[in-house]
Amino acid sequence: MSASPDALVGREREQRLLAATxxxxxxxxxxxxxxxGEPGTGKSTLLGRAGAAAQDFTVLRLVGTxxxxxxxxxxxxxxxxxxxxxxxxxxxxxxEALRVALGTSSGPVPDRFLxxxxxxxxxxxxxxxxxxxxxxxxxxxxxxxxxxxxxFVGRRLHAEQVALxxxxxxxxxxxxxxxxxxxVDLAGLARDEALALLRGRVGTALDPQVADxxxxxxxxxxxxLLDLSDELSAAQLAGRAVLGAPLPVGSHLEEHYQRLTxxxxxxxxxxxxxxAAEPTGDVAYVAAASATMRLPDDxxxxxxxxxxxxVDGRVMFRHPLVRSAVYRGATGSERRAAHAALADVTxxxxxxxxxAWHLSAATSGPDEAAAVALEAGAVRAHARGGYAARAAFxxxxxxxxxxGPRRDERAVSAAEAASLAGSPVRALALLEGVxxxxxxxxxxxxxxxxxxxxxxxxxxxxxxxxxxALFLRAARALRASDPTAARDALLAAFGEILAAESAAGDxxxxxLARQAAALGAAGPAGTSGTGTADEGAxxxxxxxxxxxxxxxxxxxxSALATMPDARCVxxxxxxxxxxxxxxxxxxxxxxxxGLLAVAATTALWDDAARDALLxxxxxxxxxxxxxxxxxxxxxxxxxxxxxxxxxDSADRLLAEVHExxxxxxxxxxxxxxxANAELLAWHGPDSPALRDRIDDAERAAAHLGIGGxxxxxxxxxxxxxxxxxxxxxxxxxxxxxxREGFMQVGTRVLxxxxxxxxxxxxxxxxxxxxDRLADVTLxxxxxxxxxxxxxxxxxxxxxxxxxxxxxxxVGHLSRTRSVADLARAHLLHGEWLRRRRRRREAAAALSxxxxxxxxxxxxxxxxxxxxxxxxxxxxxxxxxxxxxxGLTAQEQTVVELAVTGATNAEIAASLFISTHTVHxxxxxxxxxxxxxxxxxxxxxxxxxxxxxSVPR
Length: 952
What we know:
This protein is mainly alpha-helical. The protein has 50 helices and seven strands. The strands form two sheets. It has a five-stranded parallel sheet, with helices on both faces. The protein has a two-stranded antiparallel ribbon with strand order 6-7. Helix 25 packs across helix 27. The chain starts with 11 loop residues before the first helix and ends in a 12-residue tail after the last helix.
């Protein structure tokens, strides 16, 4: 008996995996599976079997087609539009984003990750009615937006009744996009299985040697075996005639289909090409184009009779390889003619972008009309959040534009789009042929900024170091024609140089400060702004509206860059106050450049303002679904939490950063290239392995020109040295950072410089550092700054004054969030008291320091406090276990949000997960904490010592 056409000989393991995937989804444990293999290995058949086995599921099917790959959200649109009514159940921001992406409504350009979150939420919502199965065949040919959505969903599915199964061809870009999802590789069948399939299909005598030859030549490829059983003659199968060569497998399989379809008459071949070039399988368009080309009505009959294609509601090819073989087997002129015919008949309003793509494919040289149509398509794609589609439309428009300024301008636009779509290498290739001299000032500025962004995201050597100068050049180009855009470019340049620090090169910061001073002075309110270092204190530029933040912030940053001392404090304070005005954080300036608040607040030693502004920036990024922005804010917030010793908070923020980076497709290795070196140092324990890890982070940062991360590694090593009592080594490290004196960074290390200098015999340097520290902190008046100043003064003060300074330090720092500096104040005070033989007081201070360090999880400094306390009491206290709730980072974050009164839907939107996953984490947290309701959570989070498990 012949094998059925969809026989699955030798795929028992894969069928068991699919069955388990469906079973887990039925139990509320979401599963994802990628089937990866060469053409013909049975991926589509396995998907069909999964769909057939999912009778109790809601099944959504997506199929990629090569000619539709550049139409934004095309696949997702076809799958979700029949369920459009359910979109109304989503949180409003998600619903609006998804409707815009699907083209059913207009609105602000949606963030691509917010669209992905909306699809995740929609699938979770559908699974409330019945388990939901998403099947995506030929995922390598899905449009980039749909593929990215599915990849995001696959990474965030957890506790929903959802199964996602994708089939992707080996060696394609789509394979790389799904590489981090659970994957099963489909190879050719084993020899015995392949022989069984072949014998089951052949209805005549089969020579054993011929069978072995076929199996070996095809590598056990099931489709090649089945096709051969139909194509080879009885004489060949019986060994009485010679087999043809090469036998169809891999690329030869496509050639096999080209030979089959190439044997048809000219009219039939033209009809097949129309069908292959029409990506949606629209029967009406294919029929109309056939009429345009004057093809006979029965042109499709031969391939239909041969089961290579079916025309039943939609034109469908037997296998994607047939479509690919037809399209690739045609000549360039034949393909252009087909696309021209399709462009003539593609006339529905919803298909305007499809028509533009046909027009572009119908021409081989410059064609301004087609390029304009593509530009219009790019605008529409951008409006729907189709970043990759926009880049593709614009890149093709460049190809259709004659050399000259217009082509260069389009290339810049295409490069900007490619960077936004996550294709920096493509962006750089587009910019390579641009003649900067031909560009208008505004386009030149865009070109420079696009180059800076693309180089950075492509991981080019020293890209971060060179970026500030490119943004500075862009600001210069814009200054005369568009001062507002020039200010924005300068603020971006400051953001870049905060990452690059001194790696940006000599003179760049000074030049940036001069440009900022000039543009900050010409503020929208007509006020004058900054002065020079010779003119004394800076008078800040201010405006009357939140949007006036730009000149105010530029004035402050210019002052900090040129004179990081008391003279810049007034301008910095004005900028911080302006950012904290009602409505200011909703301004476009804050949305784009809010992280610059870190420089101003850190220079002022204002930990409260810094924390408030960063958390506001994080809340805005969450609400907008802007994952890249949220990633940056949470990363910076983790650094700031580390500095003040809120290490548990820093750990959780860093865990969320890693989750976000994995959600957008970074591998764990990529996500962890740059460690929070200071956090590693605080936690310890000090070891060669830890120091090697910090050194590795520094080398990686130096390669990319990220001077800020280099400074971070230096201060991390200095912390380890201070904890170990190696003050000479600590001095060498922090002295370099202090000497560079980069904006707020040089000021931040001054307390460490004072301590290490005093303890290593560099009193002159210690006094210099103390004077600089006093200059800024006294002018600012913030408790954090006054606390570290008092602590530093105590180290240089005569015995009769030191005790009072230490006590002042504790008093000031007790009013701040900086438990790290408070603990170090107690530690230094206790050490000072011990050396003055005031043993009881020393024991009390050192015990307090040890308690704080242990609660922080700061093992190296806890070890130092323990050694000092042992010297006082004669016994070494045993290390204490830190109180813990036992919750994972994700559970802790979910619980914290629940304590604030946030609903499951609000928590899900905030963390980019589904409501089902929120419920799952809360259920586990309730069990671990021994509670039964949300009202009990706040009390349960309190540790036995009365504090909370999460200092905030």
